[in-house]
Amino acid sequence: SNVLNHTLYTNIMNKLKSSAFKNTEPFCNIRLQGIYFADNHYYNLEYLDDPESNEYFGGNSLFSLDDFYERGGGDCEDWALVFTAQYNYLKNMCAESDYEIRINSFISEGTSDVQIAYDETWIYLDSSETSWTDYVYAYPLCGFHSGDEYGHCWVAFTKEEITSSQDISRIISDSMIVEPQGGDFVSTYEDAFEQGLKFYIIILPDDMGYKQDLDNSSSWKTYQDYSENIQKSKLNLNKIYESFKS
């Protein structure tokens, strides 16, 4: 997803560019905390629970970008989706330059002050800067700690693009986990898993990956896999039917 697909939000895109984008040789810089700052500070977008009963939305729903902006926010999966779309918009801008993409984030409770946005002088106290250049593909990723009643959604930054369910486990096992409601670096995927965090949903551009078994060795499946299996079953049933006819 990409906010370029939503022309109603030209003003938001302009704020994203001023707060979170700086194309300065040798890097095309994307400041993750600037993405959240633009949404929250300039447009008052905030965390909102899903409506428990709504004839249009139903219960727990994944809102579209239009719905998110119209409501003034959303819950964690909505924030992860919108954050990813906004990041992809900035990433596409970087693709127009010859500079290497550098992702700038921060770690809470560090040793230095970190500027929130390029166009503002506000800072996060007791935080330290962190950045990377090789993890540039972003995917909303949801999970929970064992024993928790509720889960949460983050954004995973990977080195490679995920193109099929067979890619998911290998690629996200080497990823950087970021909190979209702030833009701060949380941990690596490996460290998060070692701390008891179980991931079970990943949102892809045209699909959704899921785990039926939360064991780390279990495989990821997508709805495309499910659809292909149905088609195979239909073909097999047709063959059986034709064999009985003959």
What would you note in describing this structure?
This protein is an alpha+beta fold and 246 residues long. The protein has a single domain (3-221), classed as C8orf32 fold, CATH 3.10.620. It is built from 7 helices and 13 strands. The protein has a 7-stranded antiparallel beta sheet. It has a 4-stranded mixed beta sheet with strand order 1-2-5-6. Helix 1 packs across helix 2. It starts with 9 loop residues before the first helix and ends with a helix. Residues 53-58 have low confidence and may be disordered.
Number of domains: 1
Number of strands: 13
**CATH class placement:** Alpha Beta
Low-confidence parts lasting 5 or more residues at pLDDT below 50? Answer: 53-58
Mean pLDDT: 85
- What's the end-to-end separation, in Å? 49 Å
Walk across the major sheet and give the strand order.
Answer: 10-9-8-7-11-12-13
CATH topology: C8orf32 fold
Our count of helices gives: 7
Which labels suit this protein?
single chain; 246 residues; alpha+beta; C8orf32 fold; 7-stranded antiparallel sheet; 4-stranded mixed sheet; 7 helices; globular
